[in-house]
Amino acid sequence: MITGALIVVLSFGYVGLLFALAYYGDKRADAGRSIIANPYIYTLSLAVYCTSWTFYGSVGRAATSGIGFLPIYLGPTLMAALWWYVLLKLIRISKAHRITSIADFIASRYGKSHLLGGLVTIIAVLGIVPYIALQLKAISASFSIILQYPTEALVIDSFSDLPFLHDNTFYIAMLLAAFTILFGTRHLDATERHEGLVAAIAFESVVKLVAFIAVGCFVTYGMYDGFSDVFRKAAALPEFNALLNQGGAAGNYTNWLSLTVLSMLAIILLPRQFQVAVVENVDERHLNKAIWLFPLYLLAINIFVLPIALGGLMHFPAGTVDADTFVLTLPMTERVTWLALLAFIGGLSAATGMVIVETIALSTMVCNDLVMPILLRWKYLRLTERRDLSGLLLGIRRGAIIVVLALGYGFFYLAGEAYALVSIGLISFSAVAQFAPAMLGGLFWKGGTRLGALWGLTAGFLVWLYTLLLPSFAKSGWLPITFLTEGIFGIDLLKPQQLFGLQDLDDISHCLFWSMIANIGLYVTISLWRRPTATEHGQANLFVDVLRYVAAGSGSRFWRGSATVIDLQTLLGRFIGPERAHEAFAAYARSQGIQQIEKLTANAVLVHYVESQIAGAIGSASARDMVASVVDEEPLALDEVMAIIDEASQALAYSRQLEEKSRELQSATDELRKANQRLQELDRLKDDFISTVTHELRTPLTSIRAFSEILSDNPQLDQAQRGKFLGIITRESERLTRLINQVLDLAKLESGAADWNPSEMDMREVIEEAATALSQIYKERNIRLELQLPEITPPVTADRDRVMQVVLNLLSNAANFCEKPDSRVCITLEHRSEALQIEVSDNGIGISPADQAIIFEKFRQVSDMPAGKPKGSGLGLAISREIIEHFGGRLWVDSTPELGSRFCFTLPLQRIGGAALAA
Amino acid sequence: MQKSVLIVEDEESIALSLEFLLRKEGCAVACARDGTTALQMIAQQPPDMVLLDVMLPLMDGFELCRRIRVDPALKKTRILMLTARGRENEIARGMSLGADAYLTKPFSTRELMGTVRSLLGAGMPATP
Predict the structure, then answer these.
(1) Mean of pLDDT values over A709-735
(2) What angle do CA A779, A782, A784 make, to 5 degrees?
(3) B31 touches A at CB < 8 Å
(4) Cβ atoms A798, A766 nearer than 8 A
(5) Cβ–Cβ gap B57/A698 under 8 Å
(6) In terms of pTM, does the model score above 0.80?
(7) Which residue of B9, B13, B108, B113 is the best one to mutate when testing the A interface, meaning the one whose CB has the most A CBs within 10 A?
(8) What crossing angle do the helices spanning A337-365 and A4-30 adopt, rounded to 10°?
């Protein structure tokens, strides 16, 4: 036997346990050892989505429409997949701007608008209060049912006849108010996080899941023989056919689609969901696990819905027991007392969790976005002059909690069994869905404006009111039913649930269709109609691009003005108390690496910090007004803001460009370094060259001077000696002239300033002429000169005199290397495929490999000729190579020491490029 | 007493002019065209003075100068360096290696002979 006293003790004991748990959670949080800072608690707290509507209602819905209960859980599951995109953004933005409610979020997004914040709050309160009432009704109903244990007859409620002081639900509501006040408003905090409360909510999620699964297992495996048994038995009964076969009517699919969309939106837009998912979020990384854990929770709590529904329908004669109560009545009918009590506690936990979180979310909105803006503007109260507003703020919060719960209880007390309460869950979903355009639009579209959001919200809200809430009132008998059947003022087109003749849609789809057309239509049209103001544009950028901005201090970019540190601290102290303000400033100073608060400068970052701290307490719009009251703010013109925004959005592209530039710079630096090394090398070569040239010039000069002075100082010298010395002077003078000419020649060749006179020439003829010119020298030295020339060679285009210079140089070099008695020099001309090849070979002393490598360099001569210094200037081969390469040919040497050398060069028959011809 | 002078010079015409000038002065003159030959000749018959070109095949004048100076038997041998490279640091290098005098090509024959005379006179062993 379950007595009323037992139920009361159990209920209050359970809530007492919540108190203890929340108290423990807060203590741990104060000690810095959070018990909620993990993804599992976060996921469980998200499961506050599952209310008594889930716990009892899913079974009820399944009993009337089969798997029609599913869209409400499919939506959130689908949405969870988008969390990384949507919820992460919400969390980032809210953390950066100390946003503590949906109203605050929307107000802040559209330029910190009081009007928007207020409107959102009103919609939320109107939409959610009946939902809270629904939970209270569930508690009350479950009370009544379990009190009749073990009789499980259809409950006829009589509580509306009772004065509320005799109603247990009233005391539960009071207890919940106390709990919410105690753990929801312990202190004012910028982050507005409540660790103890979240711990309690997570615990409740465990309790309701365990209770539901326990009942499910009992029904499936206790009363029946597993899933297949339940379904097989149900399938055998003809009246269940419609239930088990999802009908194919078009309206059915529309309904599924609407419910899925609605619940997708609800999972982020319901005030309680925003509270646990965004405001209470400890670490955005918790999303990683929550993304799959939360759908898993939903799956777990839905697995047994159909078995329980079918079990209940088969067990109880039709119409005797409300399907909504199967979770409770099935254990009762089997006399399993403990399970009945557990189911009761599970339902209680589902209801209380929702009520607590929803109340705290609504009270924050009411305080920050409704009451405070009005109080602060009410000059008569002189609130802005009061030293410490933190007490008042807490008072307002607590008052708001009581008012919200009182409204919920009042609605429940008055509405009772009326139709309004039954369908209120979806009506609430439809209400919060109105936030979607302004919220999601504001998250992803920079063009949305305050006016657009305001009109869209208002229109959507009015359509919701007209097509969903008022009809539900009419069905409850609070409005004349003609409102529904004939439309307002009897105009047919204005029938609330067949607006403009739209029929064949269920209530919810109908409302969703029209309200979204009005809401989105006005939001987009009006936003496009007017350009966003500077503030709107600034906020739009901060919100939409939040994942790209570094959160801290980002808002400060749009601020310019002056204030004193002491003013700011005093201001903050008025809202969160002087001590906490002092702590906040000290923390800020530490974060800036400054030892004392006095040394802080009141710059934009500090002002932004103070504003965001105050925003946590009174909402962003009011916070802005408050800060503005102590700061001489210079408003930014639109073009300035645009400039800042452009600058910011260009920063990313610019940094990419910068990386690119930096890479280019690096390679340019490398090239420059190489060029510099090359220059230094060239500079050294130039010094060497000058030094060498100087040396080469001094040598003949020395002889000339010495013999001139000898001749001058010795007039008595005989004729032969005079002649010899004068001969030396002449020869050395010639050598000097030749050297100077060659140096100049080489300089010209190397600098590209040489004059070229290319023409078609006969190579054979050039060689013959050169041989003739040197024949005298060869004869004197007794060296045989052989010519091996073909009869005909193709003409080649080159500078005849220059090529002649090369041939002469090679032939005289060869002669210089020949000192043996049987010396022989051979010059050959060959027609190779694309070039003429000329070879000058001798059987002289040869050139060592080391010398072969350097003889083409300037002034580098074969160093170890035993016969003494070679006679040339050391420039001949360098010049020759320049000439041959100018015409696209090659000049090289093969040599075997002691056996002789072979110098070869080629002249291409077709000039490559041809540009050099003109040079 | 006739002084002996070794001319180390690879440039034939310059060697010829030096030979003429020194013979006229009454010296016994020998010529070498490269460093190694000169070193052999010095070892066989140490001269009173070496007229030394810097740019020489096989062994350059600086090296030859250094070798002469490390040989105790040759400490009385005067060294006059001649170079076509007139840079200060080369003069300093020659002097640090123990050359007695240093002239830059092209030189004045009078200056050259003045230097030769003073070096040979200072280096003359005292007559008992």
Answers:
(1) 89
(2) 80
(3) no
(4) no
(5) no
(6) no
(7) B13
(8) 50
